[in-house]
Amino acid sequence: MFDQLFGDLQKKQEDLKKSLAEVIIDHSFQDGIIEIKLNANKEVLNIKIDPEKLDTSDVEQIEDMMVIAMNEALEKAELEQAEKSQSLLGDMIPGGLGNLFGG
């Protein structure tokens, strides 16, 4: 019984990872100064910096903005990941036990 349960769990985790890779998040920081594209697995796919909106000679400012923009984008990915994981957990819980974890 447990072998089947763990096998199912592993398959569902793999399916979840594939599903999260397909969820694309486009994050725009400060009116498009920095644009970050990542998936819900928190894998960065692309970063664009608009040199017309940003003083590219101020490296420290760019670094600070990149940190903020990345953290915001990763937060969006984390929310997507949590939603999908919660859905997976709900599908795995046998009927009648759905409120076991407060859900």
Compile the SSE list and pairings.
Blueprint: H1 2-22, E1 24-29, E2 34-39, E3 44-49, H2 59-92
Helix pairs in contact: 1-2
Question: Would you mind describing this structure in some detail?
Answer:
It is a single chain. By secondary structure, the chain is α+β, with helices and mostly antiparallel strands. The protein has a domain at 18-89: Nucleoid-associated protein YbaB-like domain (Ybab, Chain: A, 2-Layer Sandwich). Helix content is 53%, strand content 17%. The chain has two helices and three strands, in the order H-E-E-E-H. It has helices spanning 2-22, 59-92; strands at residues 24-29, 34-39, 44-49. It has a three-stranded antiparallel β-sheet. A hairpin with a 4-residue loop joins strand 2 and strand 3 (44-49). Helix 1 runs antiparallel to helix 2 (59-92). It starts with a helix and ends in an 11-residue tail after the last helix.
What's a quick, concise take on this entry?
The chain is α+β, with helices and mostly antiparallel strands and 103 residues long.
